């Protein structure tokens, strides 16, 4: 049995969970908090006014899912206020057991552009005489190089014995400053992506041996299947999809909990003629055996591709879009009985300007009132 539980955020899926979800969480954490724990929280030092109401060694920080407006309570705060866990956000928490001391400093999930500044302001330091853990909930640029707003590994505070991040949904182990960085990943399926097919679970870390062990849990079966086509008929696509779905269901039916699996089909290539076939019927047909997600956005039709190429070239058929727009505009003027001889092209340009409605109407009326 573990001596302490560390939860790095996103315990809830929403910042305002339904009452039945909150009730379920309270039941789980009440049972945990009533267990006989050898380890105890012996010191709590908040930097931003957080409070602790228990010595039970269940330490957590809020994730981005729980994040609310500054000054407002979030669902994790409710569990902390009820004395079921300790909220370590922007606080030091020291846990002791049989002469061993472990200190945790937490930074709950905040907006990416604020994270670097917040780390600089807090400037957390490891506590002497303890095994120090820095737990946070942010994107890391080296793992998700999508925005310079994401913190870099070099932005993390130095001197801690272990770093734990709860924001990234796939498990990951690396090193920083010669120490381990552990990302446990999510315990449930969160997105229908390739890396979500890997086993779900949690880590048990031995602070004395400085060694981690990944404990796999039985999560809902999930599989992504890529299917490629070349100038295929809709009937061929449907038949191939059925074959892959049946094969996946047979493979995933070994789940001991008999849960309905999730199967994502990614269709790629070309289809003959217009892609007017319907795949939604497949999802309905297999609804009792699998939850289906079918992505056909990568299938291309020659007819549609030609039409899109025409749009890219600013043409529909052989007529430029602008000229077609002027003709339609001219016909509308005639239908409205505007018989004045005006420069239709000049008027057309005027009404297309990204200016105020009043200015555009004024210029248009001036054009329409002109006489040759």
Short characterization:
By secondary structure, this protein is of the alpha/beta class. Helix content is 28%, strand content 27%. It has helices spanning 19-33, 75-81, 112-122, 234-252, 280-285, 302-312, 321-335, 344-351, 357-368, and strands at 5-7, 40-46, 58-60, 86-87, 91-97, 100-107, 131-136, 162-165, 172-176, 179-183, 200-206, 211-217, 222-232, 262-271, 291-300, 315-316, 319-320.
How would you sum up this structure, described in words?
The protein is of the alpha/beta class and 372 residues long. The protein folds into 3 domains: 213 residues, Metallo-dependent phosphatases (Purple Acid Phosphatase, chain A, domain 2, 4-Layer Sandwich); 85 residues, no CATH class; 55 residues, no CATH class. Helix content is 28%, strand content 27%. The chain has 9 helices and 17 strands. The strands form 5 sheets. It has a 7-stranded mixed beta sheet with strand order 2-5-6-7-8-10-9, with no helix packed on it. The protein has a 3-stranded parallel beta sheet with strand order 1-3-4, covered by helices on one side. Strands 13-14-15 form a 3-stranded parallel beta sheet. Helix 3 links the parallel strand 6 and strand 7. Helix 8 runs antiparallel to helix 9. The termini are far apart. The model has no long low-confidence stretch (mean pLDDT 83).
Strand content: 25-35%
Report the order of strands and helices.
EHEEHEEEHEEEEEEEHEHEHEEHHH
End-to-end Cα distance, whole Å, is 93 Å
Structural domains: how many: 3
Contiguous helical run count: 9
Outline:
extended
**Taking Cα atoms only, what radius of gyration do you get, to the nearest Å?**
30 Å
The tally of beta strands, per DSSP, is 17
CATH architectural arrangement of the largest domain? 4-Layer Sandwich
Helix content: 25-40%
Largest sheet: 7 strands, mixed
Class from helix and strand fractions: alpha/beta
Q: Trace the largest sheet across and list its strands.
A: 2-5-6-7-8-10-9
What is the top-level CATH class of the largest domain?
A: Alpha Beta
CATH superfamily of the largest domain: Metallo-dependent phosphatases
């Amino acid at each position: 049995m573990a001596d302490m539980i560390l939860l790095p955020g996103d315990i809830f899926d929403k910042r305002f969970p339904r009452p039945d979800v909150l009730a379920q969480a309270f039941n789980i954490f009440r049972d945990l908090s009533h267990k006989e724990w050898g380890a105890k929280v012996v010191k709590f030092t908040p930097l931003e006014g957080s409070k602790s109401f228990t010595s039970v060694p269940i330490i957590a920080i809020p994730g981005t899912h729980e994040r609310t407006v500054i000054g407002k309570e979030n669902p994790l705060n409710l569990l902390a206020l009820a004395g079921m866990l300790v909220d370590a956000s922007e606080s030091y928490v020291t846990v002791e057991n049989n002469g061993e001391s472990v200190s945790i400093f937490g930074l709950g999930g905040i907006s990416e552009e604020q994270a670097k500044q917040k780390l600089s302001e807090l400037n957390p330091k490891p506590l002497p005489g303890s095994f120090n853990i820095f737990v946070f909930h942010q994107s890391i640029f080296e793992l998700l190089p999508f925005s310079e707003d994401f913190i870099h590994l070099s932005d993390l505070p130095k001197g801690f014995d272990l770093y734990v991040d709860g924001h990234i949904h796939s498990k990951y182990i690396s090193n920083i400053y010669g120490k381990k960085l552990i990302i446990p990943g999510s315990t449930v399926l969160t997105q229908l992506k390739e890396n979500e097919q890997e086993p779900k679970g949690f880590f048990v870390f031995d602070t004395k041996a400085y060694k981690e062990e990944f404990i796999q849990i039985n999560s809902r079966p999930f599989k992504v299947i890529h299917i490629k086509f070349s100038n295929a008929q809709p009937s061929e696509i449907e038949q191939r999809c059925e074959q892959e779905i049946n094969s996946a269901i047979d493979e995933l039916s070994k789940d001991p909990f008999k849960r309905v699996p999730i199967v994502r089909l990614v269709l790629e290539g070309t289809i003959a003629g217009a892609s007017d076939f319907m795949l939604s019927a497949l999802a309905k047909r297999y609804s009792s055996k699998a939850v289906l997600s079918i992505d056909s956005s990568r299938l291309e039709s020659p007819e549609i591709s030609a039409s899109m190429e025409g749009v890219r070239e600013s043409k529909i058929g052989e007529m430029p879009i602008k000229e077609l727009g002027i003709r339609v505009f001219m016909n509308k003027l005639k239908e409205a009985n505007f018989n004045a001889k005006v420069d239709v092209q000049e008027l057309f340009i005027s009404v297309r300007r990204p200016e105020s409605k009043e200015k555009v109407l004024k210029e248009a009326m001036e054009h329409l009132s002109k006489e040759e």
